[in-house]
Amino acid sequence: MSDLPLLPEATAVTDALVRDAIQTYGAKLTDARRALLHKVVSERTRHFAMVLEDLKDPHNISAVIRTSEVFGLQDVHVINEVNPYRVTKSVLKGSYKWLDIHCHARRMGCFDALKAKGYRIAVASTNHSQSLFDLDLSIPTAFYLGSEVMGNHPETLARADVRFIIPQHGLTESLNVSVCAGVILATVDRFLREQGRDRFGLSPEDRSALLATYYERSAVGIDRNSPVHYWD
Predict the structure, then answer these.
(1) Is the torsion defined by CA of 141, 142, 147, 152 positive or negative?
(2) Which residues contact 65 (CB under 8 A, 6 or more apart)?
(3) Rounded distance, CA 113 to CA 33, Å?
């Protein structure tokens, strides 16, 4: 197997662990598979994140997760303070294996964690005038989508940095939440293509660590390296 780049420039211990994972699991994969995983990792971004706030329908949760993976986001946050995290595997089509899905038991815990990472909190709302298409997407942004029935929680709306609407030209009041996510992600994708995805990609350290994770999940599954992370 040819030597594979994207090793982290961190501590010697981290270097050794990641390098060992890349070599060990990479040896179990075909050249074509390794090339595909390299390409995907090189195009991943954490500049944007999707946040699902107490969605009830597992089909909607699954559809947003799948669409986020397709458009190259790495992180999806799921708030399950009211409704539990449930997914429909037939809708996911295995997409969750390649993401980091963060399940938050507390709404404000999720909010505070994202703010600590430097994200602007942008909440989709039908009761606002600012368009999604007018947002400054150069700012790291976490897009919040509220519950299908109740919408966004008042605490979220009160603390949001920005509220936005997806322009509509019909009589129907709102879009399905998974369709709303699709419009947001397509808008984000256009921005990344126009500005250059490499400008908003992962750091070399993150790319190497993610490549090692992808190799492991591709070679032996997710039992020892779960994509789902639970937070209080």
Answers:
(1) negative
(2) 76, 87, 92, 95, 96, 99, 101
(3) 34
Reported in sequence order, the residue ranges of 139-212 that DSSP labels E, i.e. its strands, are: 141-145, 162-164
Q: Which helix (H) or strand (E) holds 183?
A: helix 177-195
Sequence spans of domains, the chain: 12-43+202-225, 48-197
Over residues 158-181, mean pLDDT: 90
Other beta carbons within 10 Å of 173: 7
Range 48-197 classified under CATH 3.30.360.10: no
pLDDT at 14: 59
pTM of the full structure: 0.91
Q: Cβ(216)–Cβ(26) under 8 Å? A: no
Q: How high is the mean pLDDT of the chain?
A: 90
Burial of 203 (0-12, 13-18, 19+ CB in 10 A): exposed
Is the predicted pLDDT of residue 8 greater than 80, yes or no?
no
